[in-house]
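Notebook, bench 3.
Goal today: get a predicted structure for DUF3703 domain-containing protein from Rhodococcus rhodochrous J3 so we can plan the truncation constructs. The sequence was checked against the plasmid map this morning, with no discrepancies at the termini. Length recorded as 113 residues. Pasting the sequence as submitted so the record is complete.
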Amino acid sequence: MPRITAGARALYHQEMAAAKLTVPPDARWAHLERAHIASQPDPWLHTCNHAAMLALALRQRDRREALGQVLRIIVAAPGSLTGRYPEGNTGRATVGLTTPMPIPPDLAAILAR
């Protein structure tokens, strides 16, 4: 089972806090996406991140995103537990559920520690 590093855990909490404090929805999504990348190896954090994404989608009345997040909540923990998650994936319904994506360089440096 993949393990989350202390740096990834700290990054996750930093990005989730920033998402709560940021007003523009696009900026909130950006912080949630970065938190998602950091959370993928941890079943609980990964699921919590998708729950936060679902909450934002519901506030925005975005049905497509909300439905996508419900599906992702269901598969997040099993994917993390088995190590079967697409690294770098931002977790949004606008990207494929199994599509790996490049990790932003600043995140990659923190996650590699």
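DSSP finds five helices and no strands in the chain. The chain has one domain: 6-112.
Flagging this for group meeting.
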